[in-house]
Amino acid sequence: MKRYSGFSLFKNALSYHENWQKIWRSPKPQTDYDVIVVGGGGHGLATAYYLAKVHGITNVAVIEKGYLGGGNTARNTTIIRSNYLWDEAAQLYDLSLKLWEGLSQELNYNVMFSQRGVLNLGHNLQDMRDIERRVNANRLNGIDGEVVTPERIKQIAPLINISRECRYPILGASWQPRGGTARHDAVAWGYARGADALGVDLIQETEVTGIRRKNGAVAGVETTQGFIGADKVACVTAGNSGVVAAMAGLRLPVESRPLQALVSEPVKPCLDTVVMSNAVHGYISQSNKGDLVIGAGVDGYNGYGQRGSFHVIEHTLQAICELFPAFSRVRMNRQWGGVVDTCPDACPIISKTSVDGLYFNCGWGTGGFKATPGSGYVFADTVANDHPHPLAAAFTIDRFNTGALIDEHGAAGVAH
Amino acid sequence: MLLIHCPHCGEGREEEEFSYSGEAHIVRPLAPQDLNDREWGDYLFFRKNPRGIHHEMWYHAVGCRRYFYATRDTLSYEILETYIVGEKPQVTSAGSGQ
Amino acid sequence: MSQINRLPTGACTDSSTIINFTFNGKQLQGVAGDTLASALLANGVNVVGRSFKYSRPRGIVGHGAEEPNAIMQIGSGAATVPNLKATQVELYEGLEAASVNGWPSVNFDLMSITGWFGRLMPPGFYYKTFMYPAKLWMTYEHFIRKAAGLGSAPVQEDPDSYDKLNQHCDLLVVGAGPAGLVAAREAARAGARVIIADEQSEFGGSLLASTQRIEGQAATAWVAELVAGLNAFSNVQTLPRSTVFGYYDHNFLGILERRTDHLGISAKLGVRQRLHRVRAKQVILATGAFERPLVFAHNDIPGVMQASSVSTYVNRYGVAPGNRLVLFTTNDNAYQTAIDWHRAGRTLVAVIDSRGAPEGELVTAAKKLGIDVMAGCGVIEAQGGKRVKRALVARLNHDGSQIVGAVQKLDCDLIACSGGWSPAIHLSSHTGAKPVWDEQIVGFKPGESTQQERSVGACGGTYALSACLAEAVLAGAEAAKLAGCGDGNAHFPVSEVEEYQEQPQQALFLVPHTKSTSRAPSQFVDMQLDVSASGIELAVREGFESVEHIKRYTAMGFGTDQGKLGNINGMAILANALGQSIPETGTTIFRPSYTPTTFGAIAGRDIGALFDPERYTPVHRWHEEQGAEFEDVGQWKRSWYFPRSGESMDDAVNRECLAVRNSLGILDASTLGKIDIQGPDAAEFVTRMYSNSYLKLAPGKCRYGVMLKEDGMIFDDGVCACLADNHYLMFTTTGGAAGVLAWLELWQQTEWPDLKVYFTSVTDHWSTATISGPNARKALAKVCDDIDLSSDGFQFMDWRDGTVAGVKARVFRISFTGELSYEVNVPAQYGRPIWEALMAAGEEFDITPYGTESMHVLRAEKGFIIVGQDTDGSMTPADMNMDWVVGKNKSFSFVGKRSLERSDSVRENRKQLVGLKTIEGAQVLTEGAQVVFDAQQKIPMSMQGHVTSSYFSSNLGHSIALAVVKGGHSRMGQVVYCPMADGRIIAAEIVDSVFYDAKGERQHV
Amino acid sequence: MSSKAENINSESPLKYFHKLSNHQRHSDSAEIFNGDVEFALVIKEAPICAHLNLRGDGADKSFTDGIAKVLGIALPTEPGTYQSCQQHSLFWLGPDEWLLVSQGNAAEIEVSLRQVLAGHIAIVDISGGQTMINLRGTDMAVQTVLKKSSVYDFAGWPGASGNAGRCAQTTFAKASAVVSNKSDGSFDLIIRRSFADYIARWLLDAGEEFGCRIEG
Question: Are C290 and C199 in contact (CB under 8 A)?
Answer without folding.
Answer: no
